[in-house]
Amino acid sequence: MPFSSLGLSPSLLSALAGQNYAQPYPIQLEVIPAILNKRDVLGIAPTGSGKTISYALPVLMMLKGNSAPKNRHVKVLVLVPTRELAMQVNEVFQLFAPALPVPVKTMAVYGGVSINPQMMDMQGVSILVATPGRLLELVESNAVHLGGIDTLVLDEADKMLNLGFREEMNRIIALLPEKRQNLLFSATLGPDVSNINQILLHDPLVFKIESESDNIDLITQLAYFVPDEKKGPLLRYLIKSNDLTQVLVFTSSVYSAENVADKLRKNGINATAIHSQKSQKARFDALSKFKSGELCVLVATDLISRGIDIKFLPHVINYELPRSPKDYIHRIGRTGRAESPGEAISFISPDDQQHFKVIQKKMGKWVTMIDSDSLQLHGF
């Protein structure tokens, strides 16, 4: 079924075609018509399933032809757990907003940067993408008013609740009008999400797609037995000998991320690290260059990884294993998404072998193992 059957305007359909979106993903087929029909929605869907477009397009469609909102009274509020996701969601709105006959101003607000420019830019905003803490700061400064919200979106609601946003969420919800459309998206349907579902949603359409752990068959997994001191040469060998051009490398610490990226650069590989101690601008620039293909290797920590959303990421390398099997599945789930195959490679030191056996057992899938001693790593 094509996008043209979902009730979207010709201008949005043209914008989709211009961005090479040919066929809707399953969540888009279900959710777009439901939102246009003013239904509440509960979507259980992992990152990479197409959920952002599934709500961004109909939200824009419903604003089509509307006059600009009363100053500082936004019409659509999208709440997200991280700055990186706020920027990415706003990018999607900004990608399609120009297709509307009447301009719609969208904006992302988040902490870690000065609040003053955000306060000044709030004039005329119709769609606000926000992290909870910064949103409340803006409300307290009278920079934005939430009494005119028509549509509330909670993206990655499970992460927001797990990260301790519950009190902030309750304060925000208390500021919203009772009559509104609610769209809630979550990677899992845990008790926290179930509770907030009962509070927020009225007769929702419930749509669930497979999780990352169900999607791992799309991913080719390999693992290399390698001592710690040879991980650097092995990484450089794999990138250079296989001519890899877009690689996401995971490390277990900020120090390790910086060290790995630095050694890659010294060996002629364009790489940078992204982690919580980087400035917001540095993170944004690195992610933009990585998405565009200008940057070959992005070295990331787990803390920052949820903001990394790339449609067709071909390679993920676990330079160091994560602590839990769940984190492992989330890491390799950065590739092999939205029906696109990918490759995930893990480096297994002698101390990692037992832990990796536990990961494989929990995953229900055994990974092909290669001994790095069989490779000629000299010179790398």
Verbal overview:
The protein folds into two domains: 3-209, 3-Layer(aba) Sandwich (Rossmann fold), CATH 3.40.50.300; 213-374, Rossmann fold (3-Layer(aba) Sandwich), CATH 3.40.50.300. Helix 2 (26-36) packs parallel to helix 3 and helix 14 (325-332) crosses helix 15. It has a seven-stranded parallel β-sheet, with helices on both faces. It has 380 residues and is of the alpha/beta class. The model has no long low-confidence stretch (mean pLDDT 87). The protein starts with 9 loop residues before the first helix and ends in a 9-residue tail after the last strand. Helix content is 39%, strand content 18%. Strand 10, helix 12 (280-292) and strand 11 (297-301) form a beta-alpha-beta unit. It is built from 15 helices and 14 strands.
SSE inventory with pairings:
Layout: H1 10-18, H2 26-36, E1 41-44, H3 51-63, E2 76-79, H4 83-96, E3 105-109, H5 115-121, E4 125-130, H6 132-140, E5 151-154, H7 157-162, H8 166-175, E6 181-186, H9 191-200, E7 205-208, E8 219-225, H10 231-241, E9 247-251, H11 254-266, E10 271-274, H12 280-292, E11 297-301, H13 302-305, E12 315-318, H14 325-332, E13 342-348, H15 353-363, E14 368-371
Parallel strand pairs: 1-6, 1-7, 2-4, 2-5, 3-4, 5-6, 8-13, 8-14, 9-11, 9-12, 10-11, 12-13
Helix pairs in contact: 2-3, 3-4, 6-8, 14-15
